[in-house]
Amino acid sequence: MIDDPHQFRPGDQPTPFSADEIRQGCPPGRMVRMLVVRAGQEPYVRVTRFSTGDEDGSDQEIWTETPDGTRLTETETAHSTWREFQGHASMPADRTTVTEEEIEIPAGRFTCLRYTRTDDDGVGDFWFATSAPGMPLKFEQRVEGKIVFSSTALSDQRPA
Q: Torsions phi, psi of 106, nearest 5?
């Protein structure tokens, strides 16, 4: 039997991308700007820039800014393995459905795999653009039918 590189954990849905596909899709220089909206708070933009990458993982620079581009925080650095990134998208098969869907967001129009996960505290929808391996370009968390958190890509820039 051949192992499926998209199967992160037994009992979970296959992930939208393998660790290797995420590595290829997140080269140094890729920068994603996400508009984050939390119920009852001012919106802000979370910027993630991949600064280094090798066979095992990547360093990222992360900061927040206002929607008009004024810096709110200093740059923080983080390191993740490609396998850790893949694990973030591994969701229990018995509580998660996967469908294909086209979305139009500020970063563009994308064909996505939409993962809808139901948990005790609500429903989360994750839109993973098939042309942009890595983080979901859109995410919404709903509690009792109301969106309490969302994150939507404003831009997804990649090195030439």
A: -55, -30
- Domains along the sequence of the chain with CATH: 19-157 (2.40.360.20)
Locate 132 and state its tokens: 């942009």
Handedness of CA 59, 57, 64, 25 (dihedral sign): positive
Q: Which helix (H) or strand (E) holds 83?
A: helix 82-88
Q: Render each residue's pLDDT in the chain as its tens digit; 160 residues.
A: 348 899 999 999 999 999 999 999 999 999 999 999 999 999 999 999 999 999 999 999 999 999 999 999 999 999 999 999 999 999 999 999 999 999 999 999 999 999 999 999 999 999 999 999 999 999 999 999 999 999 999 999 998 8
Cross-strand pairs, 117:
96, 124
Q: Give the integer Cα–Cα distance in Å for 35 and 43.
A: 7
Q: Where are the alpha helices (DSSP H) in the chain?
A: 19-25, 82-88
Q: CA-to-CA distance for 77 and 79, rounded, in angstroms? A: 7
Count of CB atoms situated within 10 Å of the CB of 133:
21
Neighbour-count burial of 123, counting CB atoms closer than 10 A to its CB (0-12 exposed, 13-18 middle, 19+ buried)? middle
